[in-house]
Amino acid sequence: MLRNFNPLIRKVYNRLFSNQKEFTSFIKSVTGITPSNLHIYEQVFKHRSKHLDPKENNERLELLGDAILDAVVCDFLYKKYPYKEEGFITELRSKIVNRKSLNEVGQRLGLIEKLQFNRKSMNDASKDLSGNTFEALVGAVYLDAGFEKTARFIKKRILQNLIDVDELQETNTDYKSQIYHYIQRESKSINFKVTEEKTRNRKAYFVIDLEISGKPVARGEGFSKKAAEQHAAMKALEVLGETAVAEQL
């Protein structure tokens, strides 16, 4: 019945009178936003391993949050670096929204402590739970508070506090070298295959599939073959769980 009330009234109720005042306070401390629809935020912390119903688990929120996060990060970088070319923004955005970076954000926000999941069934998938939960949280904030407040949360609380964008800019991004290191270590073969070449904004645009031992692993895109190969290599490293391989070089 509370859902029929004005959002401001719901926020006051959630903060002062609800039996979930502690949860409300947690969401406020993380996002800077007092939640209006608590049900959406509860769904953020329901993993599919324990909640099979897609209307109740956080997979749909995760998908939505991924798209919103990508747009906000791109907007942030576009304005922060007004004279940088498309390739620079694409590469830096990829560093910010990759699994390793988002997992660290989710961990620092303490999201995993609230997550309901079946530990016995997770195995290796558990390493990405923090990042996936963060994306679900972004989706929930968007549905509850709208795009502007979601963008403010991401920019002020994440990009200006938890992620050092300037430092990321300087980190190694030679993903092709990293994937070749993996290939040599695992005694496998690698092939970059151009699957599509088209024109975008009057410039050549390439789509490249990365195959490992004859099997497609990832797809990359870019305004040059080199950029598309780097993008495909980055995606492949994420798929293979090798995003930290550079630290071993």
Structural summary, described in words:
The protein is mainly α and 249 residues long. The chain has 2 domains: 2-170, Ribonuclease III domain (Ribonuclease iii, N-terminal Endonuclease Domain, Chain A), CATH 1.10.1520.10; 175-248, 2-Layer Sandwich (Double Stranded RNA Binding Domain), CATH 3.30.160. Helix content is 56%, strand content 12%. It has 12 helices and 3 strands, in the order αααααααααααβββα. It has helices spanning 7-16, 21-31, 38-44, 59-80, 86-97, 99-108, 119-122, 129-145, 147-159, 165-170, 175-186, 225-240; strands at residues 190-200, 203-212, 215-222. The chain has a 3-stranded antiparallel beta sheet.
Q: What does this entry show, briefly?
A:
The protein has helices at residues 7-16, 21-31, 38-44, 59-80, 86-97, 99-108, 119-122, 129-145, 147-159, 165-170, 175-186, 225-240, and strands spanning 190-200, 203-212, 215-222. It has 249 residues and is mainly alpha-helical.
What number is the mean pLDDT? 86
Number of domains: 2
N-end to C-end Cα span = 58 Å
User: Radius of gyration from the CA trace?
Assistant: 20 Å
Give the SSE map.
Layout: H1 7-16, H2 21-31, H3 38-44, H4 59-80, H5 86-97, H6 99-108, H7 119-122, H8 129-145, H9 147-159, H10 165-170, H11 175-186, E1 190-200, E2 203-212, E3 215-222, H12 225-240
Antiparallel strand pairs: 1-2, 2-3
Helix pairs in contact: 3-8, 4-5, 4-8, 4-9, 6-8, 8-9, 11-12
Q: What descriptive keywords fit this protein?
A:
249 residues, mainly alpha, Ribonuclease iii, N-terminal Endonuclease Domain, Chain A, Double Stranded RNA Binding Domain, 3-stranded antiparallel sheet, 12 helices, 3 strands, disordered C terminus
